[in-house]
Design goal:
Layout: E1 12-14, E2 32-37, H1 41-53, E3 58-63, H2 66-72, E4 79-82, E5 85-86, E6 89-90, H3 91-102, E7 111-115, H4 120-128, E8 133-136, H5 143-217, H6 221-248, H7 257-272, E9 275-280, H8 295-314, E10 318-326, E11 329-336, H9 343-346, H10 353-362, E12 367-373, E13 376-384
Parallel strand pairs: 2-3, 2-4, 4-7, 7-8, 9-10
Antiparallel strand pairs: 1-3, 5-6, 10-11, 11-13, 12-13
Helix pairs in contact: 5-6, 5-10, 7-8, 8-10
Length: about 400
């Protein structure tokens, strides 16, 4: 605005005018720090007086050039007031500089455009570019409420952004913890399975040999019958141990993911009497190319958990497990014709099966999609694979090299 030019004024901290007590702000008694971009000293003084008359305590500094404005932005401020017509630039230019300092989105400091001549198009552009408000100099009665509102909004935005950052950190840590727990559980399962194989399995197999020797050399028919009954009991114990060990650590993955899923679906159908069909892409039953470490185990556990849910909850009569590799993405779909899942089923407070699948999939960069309706449920695991030629060679089931022994025990 036109007026007697004056250099930047020192910080001004004036009390509110008598009869207009300063508006109380809970928890914050300090004055607002106001950076005023204004080339007219009288207009600056008028704006500060209007703020004080409105009950707002301020500590203000006036600057009028681009260089002074940029230098002043290095200091902490609560709000920026700006004229539109300035020496060599405009209020919109100043708003752009503030936004560039603040990064993407709205500026960190609330920016209020205060001018004697501003058109509607300019005002709309300023608001679109991130200005908190705009006022005409002939209507400064609204300046104090505008400053209060803008500062409060900026504080709320900063608090929300800080809360969002903390929430994101918390989510990331929770996800990392869940992934660590999944890894720890698999490691513990592997250790228990190895002990069952080495200790329990070896002892039961040796005992079976001894009982069979006793049966063959016993002359008393009653003793032979008792030995035969003991052999059946030991055989049942060996089979149970094999099943437990297979559930703990699927050694069949040594034969490949396709073979492991074929075995799983056949055992599921045999054990529960529910028709279970296994399909591969385009009917190809060959093993897919070498998969990144961890992917076969994640796919196996996902199918295992999905089939467990089918057996417990779906009341289905048919299940289809479909494995495909298309466009560099491994997909495993388990679908059934059961009663489907309702929102109440998914919202159970202590239902961690599906949630665990999401976390397990994330350990290999994958995700799980679940759809359900009256005609059944479909669970799809999708895992983007390493580009061709960069996949690690060798074992692909994330097992230890020393754990390659055959887990099947001798059955006489």
């Amino acid at each position: 605005m036109n007026g007697t030019p004056a250099g930047p004024s020192p910080d001004t901290d004036a009390p509110a005018i008598a009869g207009s007590p300063a508006r109380a702000r809970p928890g914050d008694t300090r004055p607002y720090r106001v950076l005023h971009l204004e080339d007219s000293e009288p207009d600056h003084a008028l704006a500060i007086a209007c703020l004080q008359r409105g009950g707002t305590r301020v500590q203000a500094r006036r600057v009028e050039t681009r260089a002074e404005f940029l230098a002043a932005l290095d200091e902490p401020w609560d709000v920026v007031l700006s004229d539109y017509h300035l020496p060599g630039f405009t209020g919109l230019d100043a708003l752009q500089m503030l936004c560039e300092r603040s990064g993407p989105g709205a500026p960190a400091l609330p920016f209020i455009l205060v001018s004697g001549q501003i058109g509607e198009d300019t005002a709309v552009e300023a608001m679109r570019n991130g200005a908190a408000d705009y006022l005409l100099k002939n209507n400064l009665a609204r300046l104090a409420p505008a400053v209060e509102h803008a500062v409060a909004g900026a504080r709320m935005r900063r608090a929300r952004e800080a809360a969002d950052r903390e929430l994101e950190v918390s989510r990331r840590r929770l996800s990392e913890l869940a992934q660590h727990l999944q890894t720890s559980v698999e490691a513990e399962r592997q250790a228990i399975a190895r002990e069952i194989h080495d200790d329990v399995g070896g002892s039961l197999t040796a005992l079976k040999f001894e009982l069979d020797w006793i049966r063959r050399h016993a002359e008393n028919p009653a003793m032979q019958q008792r030995a035969l009954a003991a052999l059946e009991t030991v055989t049942h114990a060996i089979e149970s141990s094999q099943r437990i060990m297979q559930n703990l650590r699927p050694a069949i993955l040594e034969q490949g993911l396709v073979a492991a899923l074929q075995w799983m679906t056949s055992q599921f159908e045999k054990r529960l009497g529910i028709e279970c069909e296994f399909r591969t892409h385009a009917g190809d039953t060959r093993e897919p190319p070498a998969l990144p470490p961890g992917v076969p185990l994640v796919a196996y556990r996902t199918a295992q958990e999905a089939l467990t849910n089918v057996s417990k909850h779906s009341q289905a009569s048919r299940v289809v497990v479909d494995l495909s590799l298309t466009g560099g993405v491994l997909s495993l779909e388990v679908s059934d014709n059961g009663r489907g899942l309702g929102q109440a089923d998914l919202a159970k407070a202590r239902s961690f099966g599906i949630r665990g699948l999401h976390e397990r999939a994330s350990t290999v960069g994958g995700w799980v999609d679940l759809s359900s309706g009256p005609t059944g449920t479909s669970l799809i695991l999708s895992v983007p694979l390493t580009p061709p030629g960069t996949a690690p060679a060798g074992r692909s089931d994330n097992t230890d090299p020393d754990d390659a022994e055959n887990s099947a025990w001798t059955v006489l």
